[in-house]
Amino acid sequence: MDAQHARRLRHYLGLAYPMAVCGDGVSFTACHPDLPGCSVAGARLPELYAKLEAARRDWLTARLLGGQSVPPPNAHLAERGPRRGTTQPLDGPRGRVAQ
């Protein structure tokens, strides 16, 4: 990995990607919803977190070395559109503050 890829990898590793964890008390799975296919399974949560960090590093490295784009954190939320009950900026004259 050249210096530019290493710098970009450090940048993405420094970002706070959300994770989803599911379990039944016996085993657990975890993933980063923004990084498709970046998921792991484990029997204990500390082990799971360590495995997910290693998987994220491998996922990001493969994408960067392959010249592919890396989605920003929370990109999976933007794809769904606005949720009910959230405020969105209004476009047009009604959305402007009267001067």
Question: In words, what does this structure look like?
Answer:
The chain is of the alpha+beta class and 99 residues long. The protein has a domain at 3-69: Double Stranded RNA Binding Domain. It has three helices and three strands. It has helices spanning 3-13, 45-65, 75-78, and strands at 20-23, 28-31, 39-42. Strand 1 (20-23) and strand 2 (28-31) form a beta hairpin. The radius of gyration is 18 Å and the shape is globular.
Strand-helix topology:
Blueprint: H1 3-13, E1 20-23, E2 28-31, E3 39-42, H2 45-65, H3 75-78
Helix pairs in contact: 1-2
Q: What features would you highlight for this structure?
A:
single chain; 99 residues; alpha+beta; Double Stranded RNA Binding Domain; three-stranded antiparallel β-sheet; globular; disordered C terminus
Write a brief caption for the model.
The chain has 99 residues and is α+β, with helices and mostly antiparallel strands.
**What is the topology, as strand order, of the major beta sheet?**
1-2-3
Given helix and strand content, the structural type is alpha+beta
> In what range is the share of β-strand residues?
5-15%
What low-confidence regions span 5 or more consecutive residues with pLDDT below 50? Answer: 83-99
